[in-house]
Design goal:
Layout: H1 2-15, E1 22-23, E2 30-31, H2 33-40, H3 55-71, E3 76-83, H4 87-94, H5 100-106, H6 113-125, E4 129-134, H7 137-146, H8 156-159, H9 172-175
Parallel strand pairs: 3-4
Antiparallel strand pairs: 1-2
Amino acid sequence: MKLLVIIALLIAISAGYAQIYFVDTEDSAKLTVHELAQQLQEFDVIFFGEWHGIESIHEAQAVVTEALAEDSANLILSFEMWERDSQPVLDSFLQGDIPEEQFVAQSRIWTNYENYRPLLMIAKDYKMTVIAANVPRVYAGRVVQEGWDFIDSLPSGERGYIAQRLSAPEDDYKRE
């Protein structure tokens, strides 16, 4: 039993020192972050898939984003974490007009903000445009309660927080 605990501790400790690397799925070649960033330069849009609670994925996102930022003056980040109506406070923080504490208090951050913070700081350091991309929760809640019809009656200022074209597959996710 003691040996099992020691092995578990060694694995846990070594996981904290694991090196991030990337694999090209076409030929299984191991890529450095700079090789990956160089390959990604040819694309106009790059999506990072993630599981919100997996810290190592967020670390990989930050490493790749910084490598891309070093080679590109035209990098824009879009975050699901921030709702569209928080764009002004997000911009104020990125421009240095308000401190991080005020930004955190006013932007309705998720509980795992610390996972996203490195990306935000990279964006701030490299003076990137950052887009608060998510629909405000109040409207998402109304869709659940009322359906999509209420959206057409919103004032234009509020309607701008919601995608122009709405679509969703008729599946279990939509029904939930």
